[in-house]
Amino acid sequence: MREKCGIFATVSEDAPKKAYYALIALQHRGQESAGISVWRHRIRTLSGLGLVQDVFRGPVLAKLKSNLAIAHVRYSTSGSPTETQPLETECCGKRIAVAHNGTLTNFLPLRREYEKRGVKFHHSIDSELLGVSFLWHLRESNDEFEAMKAVFDEVKGAYSVAFLFDGKILVARDPVGFRPLSYGRGDGHYFASEDPAIGLFVEERERIRDVKPGEVFLLDGESVESRVMAEERHHGCVFEYIYFARPDSTIDGVNVYSARVRMGRELAKESPASGEVVIDVPDSGRAAALGFSMESGIPYAEGLIKNRYIGRTFITPGQFNRELKVRLKLSPVREVVGGKRVVLVDDSIVRGTTMRRIVSMLREAGAREVHVRIASPPIRHPCYMGIDIPTRHELIAAFGSVENVREAIGADSLAYLSVEGLKRAVGREELCMACLTGDYPEWAFRF
Questions:
Q1: What is the pTM of this model?
Q2: Bridge-based pairing state of the strands 189-192 and 277-280
């Protein structure tokens, strides 16, 4: 499983500097590249490969001066991993910068259609299509809201997006609301994939809210206007709650940390384990492990210590690198697990490589038994909405039973949270669970 991306946009004083700090707050959403675009009589973009602090090292940021900025951290799910965002493109005599989180399901046929109309594409990333489609329809309607409505009708898939053009910023969330997007108002206007990035600049929580599915904001530095231009059945990505989002984020009214604690509680009710200590796979399994401990009465302890200088395992390309990185990233605490029946709680199992290595390390550290509990259902299907699970054969649970997975990872027992238990924990029915159930939202594929 690969991470998605994070976007930020603001109309405020010192916009580039605020974008920089917001991207650091969103760094967990993408570690391949980072970029900021500003408006100062024209679009100017600075971007590069690597972490935010590496890309904008030294005096680089001081070169950007503007009150309008959009920004992006990327993990590639489409196109070349060496391309960065915000990306700039041209269509119909206008230039636009695009920052996009998500994946477009009809990218290739729609791109071919625009190429037949004479549009020249400059990037391999599907995000460019959003900018082209918007500018094409803007020429026809001369109205930014109507142009974005036409984009909603034409472009399918997942997209929270920010455009910078003509001294304006347009921010939109797709009609189904796959990807999260928040809006806050303080000394300026702020948009981010997760609300903690806005909380850096807007202290009052009541001034921060979710952008509604199909809602469009237009800002020109002097005024702000928003309209809901399309409405479909809401299908927010369940994996934001399971793994991707920061625990202190609130997405569509649900706090991520609280949801994860409830996942652990539900898991303990559904699949109790005979253990003496509950430990987590840090950091994403911690809240669920605490919930499991609270519900089961089995004490919680830190049995695995994380090396803070190693990034997320799932977003490391290459199987060899992933396996080596597990050893570098996690170290068992022998005093916690030695001689004990251990209940190991994690958020998910994807390929099984990481969990197999962890179970092996715990046994080497003296664990008598290792009972694995997973705070989500088995991942059996690919995602086409921005989480890069490219083929089913990479998913350890796709074709085998839970017992097959247990044998593969070497655990004494294994249990997953049920779909219904997950829904109860999150407290929302309108969730995209396609990677778990194979039930893909119709809108995303209605071409």
A1: 0.92
A2: unpaired
Q: H-helix or E-strand containing 160?
A: strand 160-165
Strands 277-280 vs 304-306: parallel, antiparallel or unpaired: unpaired
CA atoms within 13 A on the CB side of 215: 18
DSSP string computed for 378-389: ---S--SSSS--
**pLDDT value at position 314?**
46
**41-71 residue pLDDT tens:** 999 999 999 999 999 988 888 888 999 999 9
Nearest CA among 433, 392, 400 for reference residue 1: 392
80 or 44: which leads in pLDDT: 44
Residue 69: HSE in the Cβ half-sphere, 13 Å Cα cutoff? 28
Measuring CA to CA, which residue among 344, 370, 374 is closest to residue 266?
Answer: 374
Q: In whole numbers, what is the pLDDT of the chain averaged over residues? A: 92
Give the residue with greater pLDDT, 368 vs 313: 368
Taking the CB of residue 378, how many other CB atoms lie within 10 A of it? Answer: 22
Is residue 283 reached through a cis peptide bond, with omega within 30 degrees of 0 on the bond before it? yes
- How confident is residue 313, by pLDDT bands cut at 50, 70 and 90? very low
Average pLDDT over residues 177-204: 96
Q: How many other CB atoms are there within 10 angstroms of residue 93's CB atom?
A: 7
For 121, the token pair is 């594409």
Q: Which helix (H) or strand (E) holds 426?
A: helix 419-426
In angstroms, rounded to a whole number, what is the distance separating the alpha carbons of residues 304 and 280? 7
Distances (CA, A) of 110 to 105, 135, 214, 257: 10, 15, 20, 39
The catalytic site residues sit at 5
